[in-house]
Design brief:
By secondary structure, the protein is an alpha+beta fold. It has 26 helices and 19 strands. It has a six-stranded antiparallel sheet, sandwiched between helices. A six-stranded antiparallel β-barrel has the order 14-15-16-19-18-17.
Length: about 775
């Protein structure tokens, strides 16, 4: 049975607690290494060790401390108030030694499976405990000494003097079992009561004797006896009151510790719940990391924290999220190479990652690391730290670490257990986010392929779906629709003509007028689109796409096809795509005609308003063209370029900016910012005359760097005569281009700080206006 796990980690934990208090010079990691144990195993109360491991651990402890009696000392410490949990301490305060020993059998079940414990009360102040090893178990003498220390501590908990333990039979002296008799003296309150009672009986006898033999002496003895009795009684009451006060104080301390533990458990539960919610509420890795970092910072009591993820391509750990670090320390972290493909690397993060084991260090000056790692730790100013591997499917994918620059209360295994409990959840979040991103990318790529497969059938219609998608998305944005709705409309517009895949080329590419039968055949493409797209498992808003494709040829007056719907009965998305499709079709070249001039196309669109198209949609589309395409003053140019995909979340951020626009130096302020772009507010009308796609140089004051030079491209303009976005003041939306590394770092930190709550999110994930 020596290879069976029969001793709970609580036993080793008691030794370690004693060593930290009384033998602080001893290296605990070395002790555990010699015993084949790990720190996280000791911290886990569900871990059990073998007899061989216990023996090796004890030998290492004796050698390191030089104390051959440490087993008994550890036994006393195991039942000491410092080592007991809050709940046990609170419960025992209400009991006494006799009751505690009666519970011994149940109590030891949590510590060992090596023996059976039986208790027999001899008197109110003595008890016999018999320990019989279970079959196959071979204990060592030091474990007997450890039990004696434990029995001594049980009595001492109740403020009694150290008991006398008689070891009347011992396994290691030829006995068949270990038998102990524990005797303890009653408390001094009971002793005083005993003296008082003896005095009272003696005084009564004396006074009765004097009453018959010497009445004169009775006059002296009686008052003296009364005074003596009252004095002893007063002493007894004072002692009882003091004992009660001590008991109340102990209960109060235990209650406070219990309350503190409850609060700690609640905090840890909340943290685990919040991190768990990230799995379902975040769709990309950057969002997951930023949210987890924010939760850790706001919940845990550490100076700093960071998340490192493995980059398989570079074989390095890269910092992806952090809190509490200065800019100088962040630069150090980002410039440090945490190589995971170097077996000789002994850096704490790399070791934890490679060995898939957590690290708990309360004093960084004591750990054995290379000179390079030592310089790194000292440069960061780390005094203590925890590092936990993020493991997914038995593979390390990163590191979750926290540290303190100042020596606070020691890091304990409760902290380690908490980080270990949330690290797998973080790993699952990363995997889900990565899978979701991959799914979205695959979905977007599939949609493009489908759209291009139709357009590619005819060089004259190449790009038709992309252009319709650009116009339809612009209309939806102008209407103030949500980002999700705008993306759904874009997708519907890309696929609105997919049913044409079932129309023969002889009809689809015909140069001349169509016959009635040919026209009827082409009109079936909307139903074909609906039937094909209906087999795609769209979710949420995207479920509208098949109906939009079906009804995008309906007319406002009910004369369209295929269902002859009119007015509000036509799906809203279909009304948007109808306007976008019509305008693109008449301004593009076809086999049977040349492209229509812009002014003629606009006149035709207006004429069809109220009969063919929803008047509101046409009005919004014309406003969109006038602002974004600048059609009020010039011919249509660059219509084939789609609006940028909107990916970055945006945060409110106000700072001075100086912009160089075509040689003009103009002062303004930022309104919002992201890693991809910025919106700049200008009062100057000259700035608002800038052309779309124009290059702009800017100097912006960021919180961590002044006068940061950035270059960007104008993507949209918000003019006073009619705003493209009602959310923004007059100004221009800019997408960043050609950002140098220092500027990129400063920008990234600014956005990261805003994400952590130091700014307001203007738009949800991926809704960044048109600047990103």
């Amino acid at each position: 049975m020596s290879n069976q796990h029969i001793y709970n980690s609580r036993i080793i934990d008691a030794y370690l607690k004693l060593i930290r208090v009384s033998y602080s010079h001893v290296n605990i990691n070395n002790l555990l290494e010699q015993a084949g144990m790990e720190l996280y195993e000791v911290a886990d109360q569900g871990t059990w060790f073998t007899q061989e491991q216990i023996n090796r651990f004890y030998e290492a402890v004796v050698q390191a401390t030089g104390n051959k009696n440490i087993a008994r000392e550890a036994g006393r410490y195991a039942a000491s108030p410092d080592a007991l949990g809050s709940m046990r301490k609170y419960t025992l305060a209400l009991l006494g030694p006799s009751t505690a020993f009666n519970l011994l059998g149940k109590l030891t079940e949590n510590f060992t499976k090596s023996a059976n414990y039986q208790t027999r009360m001899i008197s109110k102040n003595s008890v016999e405990v018999t320990v019989r090893p279970r079959p196959g178990v071979s204990e060592e003498p030091f474990q007997c000494e450890n039990r004696i220390g434990f029995f001594e501590a049980i009595v001492s908990i109740f403020s009694y003097k150290t008991p006398r333990v008689e070891h009347q039979e011992c396994l290691f002296s030829g006995g068949s079992e270990c038998r102990y008799v524990i005797r303890w003296q009653s408390g001094y309150t009971a002793t005083i009561k005993q003296w008082r009672d003896i005095f009272a009986i003696s005084a009564i006898g004396l006074n009765l004797f004097l009453a018959f033999t010497s009445p004169l002496m009775l006059g002296i003895a009686l008052p003296s006896s009364l005074i003596g009795f009252l004095g002893l009684n007063w002493w007894l009451e004072v002692s009882r009151r003091k004992l009660m006060e001590n008991t109340v104080d102990q209960l109060r301390d235990s209650s406070e510790q219990l309350t503190e533990q409850i609060n700690l458990n609640y905090r840890n539960t909340q943290l685990t719940r919040q991190v768990g919610e990230v799995i379902t509420s975040r769709n990309n890795i950057d969002d997951v990391i930023a949210t987890v970092v924010h939760i850790l910072e706001s919940t845990l009591d550490y100076d700093r924290g960071l998340i490192l993820l493995a980059n398989i391509a570079t074989q390095r750990l890269e910092i992806r999220g952090a809190f509490g670090y200065s800019d100088e320390h962040l630069d150090l972290l980002e410039s440090t190479s945490f190589r995971i493909d170097n077996p000789s690397s002994q850096g704490p993060f790399v070791v934890s990652f490679r060995e898939k084991k957590p690290l708990l260090v309360n004093d960084t000056s004591e750990i054995h690391v290379t000179s390079k790692s030592r310089q790194f730790i000292e440069a960061l100013g780390t005094k203590s730290f925890l590092a936990v591997p993020i493991i997914l499917e038995n593979e390390s994918i990163g590191i979750l670490a926290v540290d303190n620059q100042q020596r606070k209360k020691p890091l304990v295994y409760t902290d380690l257990n908490l980080l270990m409990s949330i690290a797998p959840t973080i790993g699952i979040s990363f995997r889900n986010a990565a899978l979701n991103e991959a799914r979205q990318n695959q979905f977007a790529a599939t949609l493009k392929v489908l759209a291009h497969s139709i357009d590619a059938r005819d060089f004259l219609t190449a790009g038709h779906s992309e252009k319709v998608a650009e116009y339809a998305t612009g209309i939806a944005m102008e209407l103030g629709k949500s980002y999700d709705y705008c993306q759904m409309i874009r997708t519907a517009a890309l696929l609105h003509d997919y049913g044409k895949i079932g129309i023969p080329d002889t009809v689809l590419k015909k140069d001349g007028p169509l016959t009635d039968s040919e026209r009827a055949l082409i009109q079936t493409h909307s139903e074909k689109s609906r039937d094909i797209l209906g087999q795609v498992p769209f979710e949420g808003l995207y479920q509208e796409i098949p109906l939009i494709a079906l009804h995008h040829h309906e007319h406002w007056d009910g004369t369209g096809y295929p269902a002859g719907l009119a007015g509000e009965a036509i799906p809203y998305g279909a009304r948007i795509v109808a306007v976008a499709d019509f305008y693109e079709a008449i301004t593009a070249k076809r086999h049977y005609r040349e492209p229509m001039p812009v002014d003629v196309a606009l006149d035709l669109l207006r004429k069809e308003t109220g009969t063919h198209f929803d008047p509101e949609i046409v009005h919004v589309f014309l406003r969109y063209l006038g602002r974004v395409k600048n059609l009020a003053s010039k011919e249509l140019e660059g219509m084939g370029k789609a609006l940028p995909q909107l990916r970055e979340p945006r945060y409110a951020f106000q700072s001075k900016v100086q912009a160089n626009l075509a040689g003009m130096i103009i002062d303004g302020v930022t309104v919002d910012i992201s890693n991809g772009g910025v919106f700049l507010h200008f009062e100057s009308q000259m700035a608002l005359q800038v052309e779309r796609n124009a290059i702009i140089q800017m100097e912006i004051d960021l919180p961590n760097a002044k006068g940061v030079s950035l270059e960007g491209q104008v993507r949209w303009v918000n003019r006073a005569d009619g705003r493209y976005s009602q959310r923004h003041p007059t100004g221009i939306g800019v997408a960043f281009v050609d950002i140098n590394q220092p500027a990129q770092k400063a920008l990234k930190r600014t956005v990261h700080n805003l994400l952590r709550g130091k700014g307001n999110v203007l738009y949800p994930q991926a809704q960044a206006g048109a600047t990103s």
